[in-house]
Amino acid sequence: MSESMQVSRSDFDRYMVPNYAPVDMIPVRGRGSRLWDQQGREYIDLAGGIAVNALGHAHPAMIEALTEQAGKLWHLSNVMTNEPALRLAARLIEATFAEKVFFANSGAEANEAAFKLARRWAHDSFGPDKHEIIACTNSFHGRTLFTVSVGGQPKYSEGFGPALPGISHVPYNDLAALEATISDATCAVVVEPIQGEGGVIAADNDWLRGVRALCDRHNALLVFDEVQSGMGRTGKLFAYMDTPVLPDILTTAKSLGGGFPIAAMLTIDRVAKHFGVGTHGSTYGGNPLGCAVAERVLDIINTREVLDGVVQRRQWLVDGLQALNAEFGLFSEIRGRGLLIGAQFVEARRGQARLLQEAAQKAGLLVLQAGPDVMRLAPSLLIEQQDIEEALQRLRLAVQGLDA
Q1: From the annotation, which residues make up the binding site for pyridoxal 5'-phosphate?
Q2: What's the pTM?
Q3: Of residues 387, 357, 400, the one with CA closest to residue 25
Q4: Active site residues
Q5: Which residues make up each annotated binding site for N(2)-acetyl-L-ornithine?
Q6: Mean pLDDT, each 10-residue run in order, the chain (404 residues)
Q7: Which of 7, 255, 276, 331 has its CA 20 to 30 A from that of 62?
Q8: Domains of the chain
């Protein structure tokens, strides 16, 4: 297919495996928090590529980092290392609890590494019987067979054969349920500090305190999945920084590369040492291009100005949503942290998240769902106030269109 060939939405159905149902327009360029489609129509982007485009579209610093690195090295494999990977690892360690870093290409890969490491650590330290993993219902950790088994949403694992053994699930924010399930056979408890796909629900700090204590009592690792909540999304560099606990392993992706595929698993020395030479790997993990871009993204996000700005931008959005709610009675709750926002529909509007997403697109606005009953917003951390104000006006039009 030549570059000059005209493509349309119908070509997706013709050429692609039908595991997605993309919207009926094709964006062709973006700048900041605005996108333009093939017909030149403009959209305000509050979806952020599902919490990926942390600096918006076509940020000049990211373009500069990518093109500069592209003129030097693209790929080496893990037979060698490279300067961008070592610099990024050092910067992540300096900024977090971590002492060691493993790079991958996606959140699922980072979680796969985390779960494998937890089992390997337990096997080496306590023997093969200590292999059980506890996660939360309605959690989401990726689409590999291991990560969908750990994820607490059966719809993603049904039809793919038996789930991996040694995995159980407890309700989120329910300490009694975890206490009844955890044992000395548990090697890890896996938690999203904010459940993203599960409805944008934040963990209770008292629950996290209890989870940490139970992990310590049973010699289990606490794994935080911050694929969606990390890299400034909550107003802290990572969501754990707003909690009273430290994890033993943390995974991050999405905003780490600001749109370039890269992920990381962060951990501590006493755990990391159990991934000896040859135990795990990734051909593309730590790719020089991805690491160069991610280092620049980290430089920009991990500043007081940007992190404080996330808190301010959340307030602008929440104030606008509350005003809209006062007029239309849409939402029973507006929740989340920072620029990961979930708006739960009232009972009378259950199941309307997809309809609102479609109506918003017609009004020139891109939003997300988190299940059928929650509108999710995950815009650029740098979104301008005027873009927020215009987005809220377009959302109002979308809501009016729902009832037309």
Answers
A1: 107-108, 140, 225-228, 283
A2: 0.96
A3: 357
A4: 140, 225, 254
A5: 143, 282
A6: 77 93 94 97 98 98 98 94 98 98 98 98 98 97 94 90 93 98 98 95 98 98 98 98 98 98 98 96 96 98 98 98 96 97 96 95 97 96 98 97 78
A7: 7
A8: 9-58+304-402 (3.90.1150.10), 73-301 (3.40.640.10)
